[in-house]
Amino acid sequence: MSNDYTTINCLSKHDGKEVRLAGWLYKGRSSGKVQFLVIRDGTGLCQCIVEKSKVPEELFTQLKHLGQESSLTVTGTVRADERSLGGYELAVTSAKIISPADGYPITPKSHGIDFLLRHRHLHFRSQRQWCIGKIRHTVIDAIRRFFNDNGFILIDTPILTATAGEEQQTLFEVDYFGSPLYLSQTGQLHLESAAMSFGKVYCFGPTFRAEKSKTRRHLTEFWMVEPEVAFIDLDGMLELAENFVSFIVACVLQNNKSELEALAADIASLEKIKPPFYRLTYTESVDILTSQKTVDFLAAQLKEFQNQKQQYETKITELETQQAGQIKQWQKDKIAAELIELRTVLAETNTKIENNPKHAALAAEFKWGKDLGGSDETIISQMHDKPVFVTHYPKEAKAFYMKADRENEKVVLNFDLLAPAGFGEIIGGSMREDDYDLLVARINNQGLKVEDYDWYLDLRRYGSVPHGGFGLGVERTIAWLTDQKHIRQCIPFPRMMDKVYI
Ligand code: 4AD
Ligand code: MG
Known about the structure:
This protein is an alpha+beta fold. It has 15 helices and 18 strands. The model has no long low-confidence stretch (mean pLDDT 94).
């Protein structure tokens, strides 16, 4: 069957020739003697022109009443047309309806996010989710390619784990034949043992955290890729991380320009993502947060938000007036969709205006020793046009396994990578404490049980070496690349603290 069909992404090879497409009706519009049917087939969208004089009358009528998302095949001649989606359109000569759909719940009018998440199984078919899905595919392919081509061995670390790898508060407990086990928060500890066998390793899989925060950056199930390297130092890791992230960005730019354009992502900024990235120590970041520079920066931002608010309000009033006038139904639908979008961004802008003074106060009062919070990261990352490494955090604010800086025992040899333009942390990583006694002291200090980590301590008993690694969150990376405000758009079926839809 497949041999009989052409796909939309291959239409350029068939200019002037007759082809058959198989897909779904994305949207349709009729103007008396001509119908404009936009068909999607999984590879793209194509406008199909049906002229009344060129097809049997019965088919013309059937197509006119065909519901959104009906499945069908269409045959016609490929015509280059610059104004058309994808540059080609189809002059239809015949069509066959496979399965008519009636009352598809997601109409071209916009819907609220709650509705869309409840209909994620169908919302997948929308342009936005389709573009993000394709970019996610590229990102995951790039991740595997980068490590496979650079001498890393893939290690599948377990999902059911006996101990915490990160904060204990975010462990998901599983009843394992009457005893508790936990869903993996990180593959790191197991991966460290593999690094002592293979040198350079990585794991890549679903990761679970019972995050009790309903923020745009947190899911309870997300995908993380973690490399771990023996005989490396902090500088070596920063280099690895910036080459890795730059490679992912380059692959997305190479494979998904049209998807990025459709999502209105900032391609020009992405083109700048090349090594070296900015490097700041935690202490330097605190100095920035508590400086006049941040006060001025946030004040300017507040002004900008207020201007945007005014513009959105004016536009909303304009559209409401138009909507009340004598216009066609499809125009009303278009305006209704625009209004939903505008009201959403207006609400977001209002939240930003409300939060601005709170964030300013948090930054001004920031005390050395605290972990950087979401709003602090946002400020630092908004001040930079390329990703920023923040290194050397206070020991007390960080996980037990991070290696203390031998030149300043108050801080650890770690880093977070903050994506630019306010996206914040996409990578967390560190050198690992490789001294047996210091590691035992850290485990005790954090109230963890040394006996739970006995196997992990073996790695320090038998041939301990300097080593380190990091974890990159796939959904946060995609949200940054595709300019999505919330990472729930960047995983097929999101799991969040307050809701699991389908
Ligand atoms: O900074 P984190 O907690 O680091 C670790 O788990 C280390 N064990 C990694 C390592 O060194 N091998 O998490 C790493 C990244 C974060 O920077 C973020 O991108 C992502 O994982 N992440 C989340 N993404 C979505 N939802 C959550 N709840 C996330 N928590 C972390
Ligand atoms: Mg982190």
